[in-house]
């Protein structure tokens, strides 16, 4: 059994994908080009923003967004400690300071009340610039509440939508709610490429052209560089694959939600297991199907022995990572993130699961807890 079975997906779309790849190879044009332009247009429509900018990864999309917002060394940006490192890494790369706030114990996303408290505590220093909210595991953060905190304090708000493309928040699509949002096409993501890729969604008037220049070395005209940028372009082969997968994406989202419900129903019978909580008004795209369980590591070992792969997103919250030691945080600073990181476990999940596989995984979890009692 695979954790995410990309081979099954390929078998279903093989004809279309092979043809799309061959047409790029035949065209001899591999950097940006027509497939990237079409993907930008289709995805801008999908999330309902005026402009989308294809980039080389979610990480680069976040970095470019902060560059376009003129984040400077010493400025402070609030984010969650319970995320993939890229979210906070890009802040540090620009010499700005990462300021963490704790998460909600049910959704695992930033807790707006905790963010508000951080803002209150640090506002007088005059260094706060913005908030990066992560929509973790496929479910949007509480973006209205965070927008309110941001607006009140004069901060920008970026949605890290790397795991949540296809989700909705109060009927609005993830990626289309904040002025800037970024998604990732890492192969394991809900909309995954065959390599790295990402997209910036831009509702912010005037930033689109700057972001386009920044992704090609700050260049607006050939060999005229207005500012220092990056090489952070999406390539044509990835865009061609993504255009095919995008056609199937609405159906895949429905399948993800179907299999999540099937897991929910089956796991409801196993009392130590806390299935994912989807907040009222949200739909999730289930980038991960992550449960919370006591004895997580022993369960993961037990499942592995039975050929069932699992993953831990994420075993160490960012404030306790060696890379962020200089920030001076300690164990106990973010108790919710710390507790969740001890108990979270992601189960095999993708649109092409079968009911037998759900039963296999849930049955093994049931056996594990039955043996323990
Ligand atoms: C929450 C989050 N932010 C940022 C990233 C970075 O995306 P990428 O791997 O495309 O650079 C990822 C994915 O890996 C992610 O899950």
TrEMBL record:
InterPro entries: DegT/StrS_aminotransferase, PyrdxlP-dep_Trfase, PyrdxlP-dep_Trfase_major, PyrdxlP-dep_Trfase_small
Active site location: 189 (proton acceptor)
UniProt KW keywords: Aminotransferase, Pyridoxal phosphate, Transferase
Record GO biological process: polysaccharide biosynthetic process
Modified residue annotations for N6-(pyridoxal phosphate)lysine: 189
CDD domains assigned: AHBA_syn
GO molecular function: pyridoxal phosphate binding; transaminase activity
Family designation: Belongs to the DegT/DnrJ/EryC1 family.
Name of the molecule in the record: DegT/DnrJ/EryC1/StrS family aminotransferase
Lineage: Bacteria, Pseudomonadati, Thermodesulfobacteriota, Thermodesulfobacteria, Thermodesulfobacteriales
């Amino acid at each position: 059994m695979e954790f995410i079975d990309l081979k099954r997906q390929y078998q279903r779309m093989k004809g279309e994908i092979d043809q799309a790849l061959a047409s790029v190879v035949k065209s001899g044009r591999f950097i940006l080009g027509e497939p990237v332009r079409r993907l930008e247009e289709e995805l801008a429509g999908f999330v309902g923003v005026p402009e989308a900018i294809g980039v080389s990864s979610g990480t680069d999309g976040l970095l470019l967004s902060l560059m376009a917002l003129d984040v400077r060394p010493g400025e402070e940006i609030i984010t969650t400690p319970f995320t993939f490192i890229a979210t906070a890494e890009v802040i540090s790369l620009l010499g700005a300071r990462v300021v963490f706030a704790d998460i909600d114990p049910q959704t695992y996303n930033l807790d707006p009340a905790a963010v508000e408290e951080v803002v209150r505590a640090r506002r007088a220093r005059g260094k706060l610039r913005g908030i990066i909210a992560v929509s973790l595991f496929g479910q949007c953060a509480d973006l209205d509440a965070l927008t309110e905190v941001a607006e009140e304090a004069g901060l920008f708000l970026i949605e890290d939508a790397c795991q949540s493309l296809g989700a909705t928040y109060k009927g609005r699509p993830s990626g289309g709610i904040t002025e800037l949002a970024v998604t990732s096409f890492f192969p394991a993501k809900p909309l995954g490429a065959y390599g790295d890729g990402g997209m910036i969604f831009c509702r912010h008037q005037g930033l689109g052209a700057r972001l386009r220049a920044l992704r090609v070395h700050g260049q607006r005209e050939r060999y005229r560089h207005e500012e220092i940028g990056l090489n952070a372009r999406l390539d044509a082969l990835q865009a061609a694959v993504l255009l095919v997968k995008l056609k199937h994406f609405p159906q895949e989202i429905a399948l993800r939600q179907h299999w999540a419900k099937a897991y929910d129903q089956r796991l409801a019978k196993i009392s130590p297991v806390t299935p994912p909580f989807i907040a009222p008004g949200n739909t999730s795209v289930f980038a991960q199907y992550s449960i919370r369980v006591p004895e997580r590591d022993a369960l993961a070992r037990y499942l592995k022995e039975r050929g069932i792969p699992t993953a831990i997103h994420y075993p160490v919250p960012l404030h306790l990572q060696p890379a962020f030691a200089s920030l001076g945080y300690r164990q106990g600073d973010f108790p919710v993130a710390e507790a969740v990181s001890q108990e979270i476990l992601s189960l095999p999940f993708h649109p092409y699961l079968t009911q037998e596989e759900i039963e296999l995984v849930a049955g093994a979890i049931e056996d594990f807890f039955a043996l323990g009692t």
